[in-house]
Amino acid sequence: MNLRLLPITLALSAAFAGSAQAQNLMSLFETARGYDATYKAAQSQYTDNLSKGEQAKALLLPTVGLTANLNNTNFDRLTAPTGTFSAQSAALTLNASHPLYRPANSASYQQGMRQLSLASIQLKAAEQDLMVRLSQAYFDVLISRESLEFVRAQKTAVAEQLAAAKRNFEVGTSTITDSREAQARYDLVLSQEIAAENDLRIKRMALNQLVGLNNIEPKSLSSKAKLTAPELSSVDQWVRQSSEANPVVLQNRAALDIAKLETTKAEAGHKPTLDLVAGFTPTRYKDGTGINAGQVDNNLTSVSLSFNMPLFAGYATQNRIKETLALEEKARSDLEAAERNVAQATRTAFFGLLSGIGQVNALQAAEASSQSALDANKLGYQVGVRINIDVLNSQSQLFQTKRDLAKARYDVLLGQLRLRQAAGVLTDADLASINALLNP
User: Do 279 and 212 fall into the same domain?
Assistant: First the structure.
């Protein structure tokens, strides 16, 4: 290779290596699933809860144990006939116990089953939260990027207006005031551009941190994308849906069930228990006998029923029941609070989405009106019936409207996700439907 071309080749390679990666929403979601620490922690918690549920099954199953003994005995006889006798023995005991009636164990088993369902609910909630957090970060980048583009377009327009004002001043058709007003507006737009660049930089870092990639370039919303109203037209329908499927409500309901079962366990302290116990113990002696004539090789088999009836435990059981009843009441209050908060959040998301759609329609009309006003002010400035500040104000109003419209469109998309999250029905398909609205 020509050495003079080597720096150019390396520079091109570095440029392509650090180039922006065009990513859509769905591909980034799959990446975030394997990288986001909060979601991975929820997955670990899910596995932990599954293990706890499986542990509860053991309370209803038999237990088996094996013990072994090896003994060496020396016996000194002091009376006739005198002498020292020794014997070695080995014993192996196999014990098995099966609970026949243990109310506390049954309650613990049911709690374990509730833990299994709770684990699925918590993982679903974490996945929905990841969808919303990723969409928020994704749209924040798009909003900041488009805001920067509008600021730069406004800077170009103000620069043209500044140049025109200077030319008119030089030929004597306008005053120095027009040039100074245009210069002041141009300086203001420059400061806005710096702020917009920094805001975009920060929003990009937040998105990169969420998915573990660098130089992500999100795909913007298509100009032809149609923003739709909620499927259910009534807010009460959404509230009913949230009371049935919202993960927070479901978690609190499971917590209440677990608290009730804890009371059942405490009440079992007054109840008897019954176990089936079996054992098998083979004992072997050296040379077949021990020191005494009765110590011979033998096999001992036993089967028994073990019954236990608690009579008095120092009022520990009564106070434990009082404690669990208080905790049960707390869980019931927590459930009521969760239902109220979720209902309020659902209503807020519903009306926020409707308001957002209305704002988009109004801003689209305002954008057309602002463009007409700018065109009219430019024409009026050319014929002398409008001054330079009128044109500058019209330009500022138009680009501000464009920024507000772009933000409102992304807010509507995020509002759709938040409403479905509040109702507990947010899935990958909802994210995919929004992803389809992005530019290919």
Answer: no
Q: What angle do CA 190, 191, 197 make, to 5 degrees?
A: 90
Instruction: Pick the last residue of a domain from 309, 326, 358.
Output: 309
Determine contact, residues 83/77, Cβ cutoff 8 Å.
yes
Phi, psi of 133 (to 5 degrees): -65, -40
pLDDT of residue 20: 52
41-78 pLDDT tens trace = 999 989 888 888 788 888 889 999 999 999 888 877 77
Alpha-carbon distance of 343 to 325, in angstroms, equals 27
Verify that 193 and 130 share a domain, yes or no.
Answer: yes
Mean pLDDT, range 418-435, rounded to an integer: 94
Q: Are 59 and 73 in contact (CB under 8 A)?
A: no
As a whole number of angstroms, the distance between CA 7 and CA 247 comes to 57
In a domain, 400, yes or no: yes
> Using CB atoms within 10 A of its CB, is residue 415 exposed (0-12), middle (13-18) or buried (19+)?
buried
Tell me, what CATH number does 355's domain have? 1.20.1600.10
**2 occurs within a structural domain:** no
Same domain, 147 and 245: yes
Distance spanning both ends of the chain, measured CA to CA: 39
The residue type found at 272 is P
CA dihedral 380, 386, 390, 395 (to 10 degrees): 20
| 432 pLDDT above the threshold of 70 | yes
**CB–CB of 221/410 below 8 Å?**
yes
pLDDT single digits (tens) 230-243: 877 789 999 999 99
Q: Are residues 387 and 286 in the same domain?
A: no
Per-residue CA distances from 231 to 220, 328, 420 (Å): 24, 37, 10
**CA-closest candidate to residue 42, choices 162, 105, 163, 133:** 133
- In a shared domain, residues 290 and 382: no
State the pLDDT at residue 231.
79
Range of the domain at 360: 20-60+102-271+315-435
Residues 419, 231: Cα–Cα separation, whole Å: 11
Tell me the residue type at 66: L
CA distance 156 to 387: 19
pTM equals 0.82
Q: How many domains does the chain have?
A: 2
Instruction: Let me know whether 345 and 401 are in one domain.
Output: yes
Q: Domain check: are 305 and 368 in the same one?
A: no
Residues 340 and 265 in one domain: yes
3-state secondary structure 247-316: HHHHHHHHHHHHHHHHHHHHHHHHCCEEEEEEEEEEEEEHHHECCCCCCECEEEEEEEEEEECCCCCCCH
